Amino acid sequence: MDKKRSNSALKPIAIPQLLQISERGVKLPVQDYLQDLETLTPVQGTVEVEHKGRYLEVRAEAKAIVTLTCDRCLSQYNHRVQLNAQEVIWLRDETIQTEIELDSEESDLVETLPPNGTFDPAQWLYEQVCLAIPPQKLCDDACEGIEIDDAKAGNPLDGRWSILEQLKNQMKEA
Fold it and tell me: pLDDT tens-digit profile of 9-61?
């Protein structure tokens, strides 16, 4: 199975086409590997895209298993990613001034798309799964990290550091 292929149900959607559907939205099943995201299992769940006039409401419920490397001990472990995400994406043409403008601080935090553009559910789902991966990766809450052999800890691993060790000892004696 080719893990690099994208889910055929998650093709880009033309935003104006959503208005032609009676429910003004689509519910897309997800049961595949996402491009550029290494997972042990396919991403499984659903993505819903609904046109609400001035914005798109996008929701996803999905799960997958990824292999992570512990930040403390560097061992690899499997982690179950559970995703329950929702986002509002404003539809506004950046070239046309709109009646209601967001202040500069808010506009940086809001996703926008042109009303006649496309929405890529595969890219959106990829971003949401990446955000669901924990920033601090620990194999276990009680992980103590890499064991350091105290006998070797005092000896520099590289002989070029020995002169620095001698200088340190001279400073202690002085």
Answer: 789 999 999 888 888 889 999 999 998 999 999 999 999 999 998 999 999 99
| Whether the Cβ atoms of residue 41 and residue 62 lie closer than 8 Å to each other | no
pLDDT in tens, 68-104: 999 999 999 999 999 999 999 998 876 555 545 555 4
- The residue type of 172 is K
Domain boundaries, the chain: 8-148
Structure tokens that stand for 52 in this block: 């609400």
- Is residue 143 within 8 A of residue 73, CB to CB? The reply is yes
Phi and psi, residue 64, nearest 5°: -165, 170
Other Cβ atoms closer than 10 A to 80: 10
DSSP string, 5-28: SPPGGG--EEHHHHHHSTTSEEEE
Six token digits for residue 58: 């996008």
Residue of 38, 46, 36 whose CA lies nearest to 9: 46
45 in Cβ contact with 55 (< 8 Å) = no
Residue closest to 56 by CA, chosen among 77, 82, 86: 86
Instruction: Residue count of the chain, please give it.
Output: 174
Q: What H or E segment, with its residue span, contains residue 31?
A: strand 25-32
